[in-house]
Amino acid sequence: MLFTQTRIGKHGSPFTIYKFRTIPVGKTQPNVWGRFMRKTKLDELPQIINIIKGEMTFVGPRPDIPGYADELKGEDRIILTVKPGITGLASLKYRKEEELLNQQQHPQQFNDEVIWPDKVRINKWYVKNKSVGLDCVILFYTLVPIDFDVDKFLYKRY
Fold first, then answer.
1. Domain segments of the chain as ranges
2. pTM confidence score
3. 57: Cβ–Cβ under 8 A, 6 or more apart, which residues?
4. Distance of CA 122 to the CA centre of its chain
5. Rounded to an integer, what distance in angstroms lies between the CA atom of residue 46 and that of residue 19?
6. Cα four-point dihedral sign 57, 61, 65, 66
7. Of 2, 7, 5, 133, whose CA–CA distance to 59 is shortest?
8. Per-residue pLDDT, 158
9. Which helix H or strand E contains 87, and what residues bound it?
10. Residue 110: strand, helix, or coil
């Protein structure tokens, strides 16, 4: 079963993203199958439809829900100059974002004050340094789930 949600794409335009549903209807948490789908990122597979439609690409900043990317100001808006991707550097750094948020006393506040600003920083760096080689590195570490220190990578290269 597909799950659809409005996300913000290139130039701040909203679009509908497709994912496999991981939380059963009427529930608030994923079941065993849903946890497996999320852990393996197989729930993201229907986003191939978004790529075919020209709304997304394989690598780029992840598209956010309204209230985040569409609210970017100043230099941060550079993120909206590229199509969002199924995977990206911020996705690699926050591969276990759900677990991290579950450990927080105030997960929404932690997301808004720590994770979101860090994702903006990483995604700005990606847009400024975008290349086929960089995309290949990101795809490799997405498909081969070994540890990858995004911050060390960013500072080592530039």
1. 2-157
2. 0.90
3. 51, 82, 83, 84, 85, 86
4. 11
5. 5
6. negative
7. 133
8. 53
9. strand 85-87
10. helix
3-state DSSP call for residue 156? helix
Say if CB 122 and CB 89 are below 8 A apart.
yes
pLDDT in tens, the chain (158 residues): 899 999 999 999 999 999 999 999 899 889 999 989 988 889 999 999 999 999 999 999 999 999 998 899 999 999 999 999 999 999 999 988 888 998 999 999 999 999 999 999 999 999 999 999 999 999 999 988 788 999 999 887 65
Q: How far apart are CA 119 and CA 61, in angstroms?
A: 8
Long-range pairs of 48-55 with CB within 8 A, sequence gap ≥ 24: 49/18, 50/15, 50/17, 50/18, 51/86, 53/15, 54/83, 55/9, 55/10, 55/15, 55/17, 55/83, 55/84
Residue 155 is predicted with a pLDDT of 82
Q: CA-CA distance, 10 to 113, in Å (whole number)?
A: 24
